UniProtKB/TrEMBL annotation:
GO terms for molecular function: isomerase activity. It comes from Candidatus Curtissbacteria bacterium GW2011_GWA1_40_16. PANTHER family: UDP-N-ACETYLGLUCOSAMINE 2-EPIMERASE. Keywords: Isomerase. It comes from the Bacteria. SUPFAM superfamilies: UDP-Glycosyltransferase/glycogen phosphorylase. Residues 25-344 form the UDP-N-acetylglucosamine 2-epimerase domain. This is UDP-n-acetylglucosamine 2-epimerase.
């Protein structure tokens, strides 16, 4: 293997790429990192790069605005220019973002093999943009690396043409390595608090639902700590929502600060797939602001509770105490980066 291109664009992409980039370096693979620019909050990107000791991307496309279709289309056009020059043996993509989809389509059109990491997960939510992105990437990928055995089963059921392997979850690798380095954000936090993250269009772009979520959380007799995503901030302003007095909003945090918050809060409330998993691994009960989750393993023992369309279920969910302990091995053995590299090496 001579050279590979890794395409990233969002916080989850950066997190998942960290340990695989280490494996590439360890094995003398020349890796070119292309950042699409999809996450355009400077604090959000720089916090992650500094915290995980990621080197700066070799190329930044700077594509950070426009509609979903415009953004994805522009990424494909710009990626093609660079891929034609670099001529990589393989492209590495992660998860379900627009950056992931753009890289998959571009690679397919240029007949460059690519590996889709975190392939095969399904929420079964019709019309969910991230779900559609992931399905397309799975169908086009030469190699699908799955974080769970259920994902392997999903792809076999769908009769995927590319190779499918179970490697475990890169995010678990990083969590296990970094949890001892977890540190509190340098802001005032009460002894007991609830951690909130909201970023998915299903919640932010629906004015009635977004307002209902904020109103319901405002009635809780606890402090809500909210590291605010750019999309949530945008729609708070558009809808002219005044936050209740029990809310503390903070700037985007680093990875080690985020896992500290997840490990030290009373509850996590989120619509993020990654945060759901990290809460589960932290042994912190989670309330999920979506009707379904791809990470069904986290539902065991009611560690992760789905509220669906009824926002009022949030109040009831607070009264439920999870049973048993989280079972980490659903997500592998903490050596996913090594196994993914070996699968890529075997494939090529």
């Amino acid at each position: 293997m001579k050279n590979v291109v890794t395409v990233v664009g969002t916080r989850p992409n950066f997190i998942k790429s960290a340990l695989l980039s280490e494996e590439y370096k360890k094995n003398s693979v020349q890796e070119t990192i292309i950042h699409t620019g999809q996450h355009y909050d400077v604090e959000l990107s720089e916090n992650i790069f500094n915290d995980l000791n990621l080197r700066n991307p070799d190329i930044n496309l700077g594509i950070n605005s426009g509609s979903q279709a415009f953004q994805t289309g522009k990424m494909i056009i710009e990626l093609e220019k660079h891929l034609l020059k670099i001529k990589p043996k393989l492209i590495t993509i992660f998860g379900d973002t627009n950056s992931t989809l753009a890289a998959a389509i571009c690679a397919s059109k240029l007949d460059i093999p690519f590996v889709h990491i975190e392939a095969g997960e399904r929420t079964l939510i019709n019309g969910m943009q991230e779900e559609e992105n992931r399905i397309i990437c799975d169908q086009l990928a030469s190699l699908n690396c799955c974080a769970t055995k259920l994902a392997v089963s999903n792809l076999k059921h769908e009769k995927i043409h590319g190779k499918v392997v179970f490697t475990g979850d890169l995010m678990l690798d990083l969590f296990l390595r970094k949890i001892k380095e977890a540190n509190s954000p340098s802001v005032y936090l009460p002894k007991e608090f609830v951690l909130l993250t909201i970023h998915r269009a299903e919640n932010t772009n629906n004015q009635t639902r977004f307002k209902q979520i904020i109103k319901t959380l405002g009635k809780l007799n606890t402090t809500i700590v909210w590291p605010m995503h750019q999309r949530a901030k945008k729609y708070l302003s558009i809808y002219a929502i005044d936050l209740p007095k029990n809310f503390i909003t903070i700037a985007p945090v680093s990875y080690t600060q985020m896992i500290w918050l997840e490990s030290n809060c009373y509850r996590v409330i989120t619509d993020s797939g990654g945060v759901q998993k990290e809460a589960y691994w932290s042994g912190t009960p989670c309330i999920n602001l979506l009707p379904k989750t791809a990470w069904t393993q986290t539902l065991e023992g009611q560690w992760n509770q789905l509220i669906g369309d009824d926002v009022e279920k949030i109040t009831h969910a607070f009264k439920i105490k999870p049973k048993g302990k989280p079972y980490m091995k659903h997500f592998g053995d903490g050596h996913a980066a090594f196994k993914i590299y070996q699968s890529i090496n075997d494939f090529l």
